[in-house]
Amino acid sequence: MQYSIGVEYALHCLVYLIDIPEDSSTGIKELSSFQGISDTYLSKIFTKLSKAGIVSSVPGVKGGYRLAKSPDEISFWDVIKAVEGPKPIFQCKNIKDNGYLYKENCCSAPSSCTINIVMLAAEEKMRDFLRSKTLAWLNEELDVVLPKQMREETRKYFSKSDI
Q1: 94-101, long-range: CB < 8 A, 24+ apart
Q2: SS3 for 142?
Q3: pLDDT digits (tens), the chain, 163 positions
Q4: Distance between CA atoms of 112 and 119, rounded to whole angstroms?
């Protein structure tokens, strides 16, 4: 199981949007430059985040993006679902139906796949955990684990109005 790097870029960029003034926005060029990635790639991620209602776009020359909700209302799972889509990680192919006993009509009782049930239950537990972690939590955690100067420089970078 692996989520794309787009999820990581999305979470990083979203946490940068927390501290910008409410009447302001941050452009894709600023965010992509700070991350060292192409603005085309990041724009595709932000299109998905916008469709999911996580960010809202601000049109115009000084336009960009801002959070569409409070950081405590945006969970890691919301971001993952927006970037990766909602389908389950485990895709049951009902391979039991191709087994010897089914082919020989020895066993025809339909049954739920126990493997699928277990995998889906495990995914639900993971989603519950990811739902419990929000952008507000991440922002507070970064204040603890990152050097204060790094956090201040990051905030300063995104508070510039003429980047």
Answers
A1: none
A2: helix
A3: 688 999 999 999 999 999 888 888 999 999 999 999 999 999 999 999 999 999 999 998 878 999 999 999 999 999 999 999 988 888 887 776 666 656 655 555 556 788 888 999 999 999 999 999 999 999 999 999 999 999 999 999 988 644 4
A4: 13
Query: Which runs of E-coded beta strand occur in 29-134?
Result: 55-58, 64-67
Q: Using the CB atoms, write b or e for 101-115: b if 16+ within 10 Å.
A: eeeeeeeeeeeeeee
Residue 152: CATH number of its domain: 1.10.10.10
**Of residues 33, 43, 40, the one with CA closest to residue 10:** 43
Q: How many domains does the chain have?
A: 1
Q: Which two tokens stand for residue 54?
A: 């996580």
Q: Which two tokens stand for residue 11?
A: 């979470």
Amino acid at 46: F
Residue 97 lies in a domain: no
- Give the residue numbers spanning the domain of 68: 5-87+133-159
Record the pTM.
0.85
Secondary structure of residue 46 in the 3-state scheme: helix
Q: With contact defined as beta carbons under 8 Å apart, do 126 and 5 qualify?
A: no
Cβ contacts of 68 within 8 Å, gap of 6 or more: 50, 53, 54, 55, 56
